[in-house]
Amino acid sequence: MSAPPWGHKPPPVDDATAYWTQSPPAPSPRCTYWLRRHTEGTWRPNRRLRIEGYHTAAEHLGIWIWEYLHLIRPLFDEEEGAGSTP
Q: Exposed e or buried b for every residue in 45-72, given b needs 16+ CB within 10 A?
């Protein structure tokens, strides 16, 4: 079985709160995975993930809170503003 174009899902970060107010030195592998999936058009957040809040969403995705707030969530807010339905 071959790997999907965005790769296999890496393990989650150990502590979602490790990078809260400042950016990490490099994106976590898990964040890169989600960004690739989004770019490929194969992943959009479900409504439950959007209403749970940033801490729960970051833990669910396995990324740092900073990544969720500054990299992932803005993509979906932009899509929503453009009229795309999640």
A: beeebeeeeeeebbbbbbbbbbbbbebb
Task: Measure the CA–CA gap between 56 and 73, rounded to whole angstroms.
Answer: 13
Spatial distance between the Cα atoms of 60 and 13, rounded to a whole number of angstroms: 11
DSSP characters over 24-69: -SS--HHHHHHHHHHHHT-----HHHHHH-HHHHHHHHTS-HHHII
CB distance 31 to 63 below 8 Å: yes
Residue 27, number of CB atoms within 10 A of its CB = 17
Instruction: Read off the pLDDT of residues 2-29 as tens digits, 9 standing for 90 and up.
Output: 777 777 899 999 999 999 889 999 999 9
Q: Reduced to 3 states, what is the DSSP secondary structure of residue 12? A: coil
Assess contact for 30 and 62: CB atoms under 8 A.
yes
For the record, the structure tokens of 11 come out as 């393990």
